Amino acid sequence: MTSFYDRLQTxxxxxxxxxxxxxxxxxxxxxxxxxxxxxxxxxxxxxxxPLKRLLTGDSAFCEECTNEHRKCELLELNGNGRKSTTCxxxxxxxxxxx
Length: 98
Ligand SMILES: [Zn+2]
What we know:
- The protein is mainly alpha-helical.
- About 45% of the residues lie in helices and about 10% in strands.
- The chain folds into two domains: about 5-60, no CATH class; about 65-95, no CATH class.
- The protein has helices spanning about 5-15, 50-55, 65-80, 85-95; strands spanning about 35, 45-50.
- Strands 1-2 form a two-stranded antiparallel sheet.
- The N and C termini lie far apart (about 30 Å).
- Bound molecules: zinc ion.
- Zinc ion binds near residues 38, 62 and 65.
């Protein structure tokens, strides 16, 4: 079975995530809080989220960006066809990166 550390490494490579610490010697568990730099383009805040959340496919965003993304998701769920400027900003930033 792949260790949590291996999975974390793979996640970081695939998502271009910069971690704050080297976790090689840590006993990683699903709720171990991982620290690193927010993956939003131009954001220099740090994220601090449980490993489990990263490995379930969530992106590594700081608290501020996570809240922005959550707002977008809610808007989409409401299905009212209206998106905030923030959502559009986030989407255009994403497509530029890819
Ligand atoms: Zn951020």
